[in-house]
Amino acid sequence: MTTAGRQRLAGLIRKESLQIMRDPSSIAIAFVLPVVLLFLFGYGVSLDARNIPIGIVVEQPDASTQSLSGSFEKSDYFSPFYFQTIQQAERALEQRDIDGIVWLKNDFARKLFSQPDAVIAVRVNGVNSNQANLTLGYIRGTWLAWITHQAEARGTKLEMPIQLEHRVWFNPAVDSRFFLVPGVVAIIMTLIGTLLTALVVAREWDRGTMEALFVTPLRNHEFIAGKLIPYFVLGITSLFVNFLLAIWLFKVPFEGSLWLLLLTGSLYMLVSLAVGLLISVVAKNQFVAGQIAIITGFLPAFILSGFIFDINSMPAAIQLITHIVPARYFVAILQTLFLAGDIWPVILANTGALLILLAVFSWLVAKKTRKSLE
Fold this sequence. Notes:
Elements: H1 3-22, H2 24-44, E1 52-58, H3 63-74, E2 78-83, H4 86-94, E3 100-104, H5 108-111, E4 120-124, H6 129-153, H7 176-207, H8 210-214, H9 220-249, H10 258-283, H11 286-303, H12 316-321, H13 326-339, H14 344-368
Parallel strand pairs: 1-2, 1-3
Antiparallel strand pairs: 3-4
Helix pairs in contact: 1-9, 2-7, 2-9, 3-6, 7-9, 7-10, 7-11, 7-13, 9-10, 10-11, 10-13, 10-14, 13-14
């Protein structure tokens, strides 16, 4: 680049930087909204089940039923309510006062070790299938732990066809916050890169200043770089602020390399910026550009990236669509860096996909950006 080219680029960067500092909405999206989202998903949203209201029906109280009921009371997963009859518990389940029923029949003590698989009856509200599966799993776990302890106390061995020994990798506490917060970082960078940048060129058209830029000696690549560099710096700054909040405030472990986070974060930021600039060049209207950015950028990043919903559980056609969603690859990178470390097959595969998307969107931006009023 010539000296004159560098001067033109520096001038445009300075103009855009001043515009960012004078625009409260840009500062809010870059720094205020990320904090709000982090607090919302860090504290307000949880995929874990705690204090599940369940009904316990004990037809013939004795030491065994009291001991098993006490196991549910001591568990952090349950908030038990007691009913005298199964009919009362079923009405409470129908009215959604409780999410499940544990029914200890009058022959509970007699059948305890003679028919251990048929001693208790369990009924669960299946309206929310995810909650129902969690509730069933927690009830099974509490029951298995209790009956195993009872067998040891009697000096007998509980006969089971399979002895299960499980280990949870990468997130031993099974805390959904550790899973959600890294994904929120990707959503925030999508907002900054795609939404803010989508308004950049469209704002010039709305304000009538694009014609003034056309009469300058700015070249296309200088125009594109001058528009993107200030927002790139803004996005990387926000990335580090969110990173510090994640590890210090929300106590999310970070097992990977900081330089890899910077490298992959910069790559994803460039992809998001290219998408946003392409939208703004095509739309030429701030309102339309903002709507397109939300529909094609934010919503796919939120729903189709694996941030909350497992991609493998989606229909095959939707899984194919997720391959053109850049956030899918960055969410996988972030969750790997935070919870597992530098797992190179995951990092390289997703980084390669981001590079391909960057090349495609950059080519489209270069093709669509022209110094023309048409």
